[in-house]
Amino acid sequence: MISMPGMLQRAARHNPEGVSTRFQGRQADWTQTRERVSRLAGALAQLGLAEADRVGILSLNSDRYYEAVFAIPWAGLCMVPLNTRWALPENNYAVTDSGTRVLLFDDAFIEQAGELLEAVDTLDQAIYMGEGECPQWASSYEELIASAVPAPMSSRGGDDMAGIFYTGGTTGFPKGVMQSHRAIWASAMGSMPAFRMNRQSVYLHVAPMFHMADFAGSMGATLCSGSHVVLPAFDPEQVLRTFAEEKISHCLMVPAMIKMVLNHPMAAVADVSSLQCVVYGASPMPAATLDAFMATWPTVGLVQAYGQTELAPVVTTLAMEDHHPGGDKLSSAGQPTAVSEVRIVDEQGEDCPPGSSGEIAVRGPHAMLGYWNRPEETARALQDGWVFTGDAGYLDTDGYLFIVDRVKDMVVTGGENVFTTEVENAVISHPAVQDVAV
After folding, report:
1. Closest by CA position to 142, among listed 36, 56, 27
2. N or C: which end of the chain has fewer CB within 10 A?
3. Which residue range(s) make up the domain with 347?
4. What pTM does this model have?
5. Beta strand 401-406 pairing with 386-395
6. 263 with 393, same domain?
């Protein structure tokens, strides 16, 4: 059966002595990572949890974060990655809403973890995965692994829920997206041809590991048993140094990160000889940033990935071949992956012809199971297997998807429909403008 632990098991079987993770001087191979994951799963199994109980993670990026992402489903449990940018009220909501029983946390979140442990009734155990001294009210991650008996891999997989991923909603509290093992696997399989990963690939985790966007690269590197190099947080200079020192081949960054890296004085002289592909997504890439990237690093491939948490997350990719100066598809989000079907739907639910804007609807094995505890919102977003994304866009005659805006951000002025991104794109094109929001 398709499952997240099965992906890790495959990597250990196909590349047992290959490097799996590197983080701040620590290194493990795939055999060692599988052993540690199974031991952590064994420790979780001794905590009195029931099948499919929720386990939260509140931590900066680390090799232990990667292990936890697989150990939780290995034990037959469901992960709840928590947003490291949220304050206590938002994470309190996510932990309470999901009924999280156990929380893994690191040094950056000792205070918040302690407050959550006191405030949330369902949360009764915490595991410290940091580098310092373990708080008295928590269990030590490393001590648990050292003392636990390796657990057999859970039989959960396929359409069983693997985790709840909370979206950063613009209004009200975030929604918990239920994603299955199959969805996470399918999204990675659909993305791999564009990302061009293999056993020799070295993937840099610099985007937050709680975010579904990082899952796109992380699961792809795992499927092909490549290596994972982890930075705790984004720092432009450290990213540039790591490209050279760790011989990074693949990396995922949002456009704002890419812009900061390119603006760093080291960018023009950085050693990017090993860098094959930078994946970008989560927001539109300004044309000026695209041009600057291709001019600064002409040998490095670019791939855009469009998607959302509800689709685990990748829907379309704009291939390396489409990224060249003056390319007529640079403003598009690319074509659907092999696992994605895309429609453009008007207000009456009818398909729009090429070039006409409407709501983007997506169907495929990577579609969410629904929103946790929100049946009415699930019914609106998930109809006959189609996920209605809330994004407005159109398909051209070549099948390339162009994102226009969020449907709700359309305004009517002078009798015409105008999307706020159209205004933003016009303003940002002025050389005196650094950034813009409408």
Report:
1. 36
2. N
3. 182-407
4. 0.93
5. antiparallel
6. yes
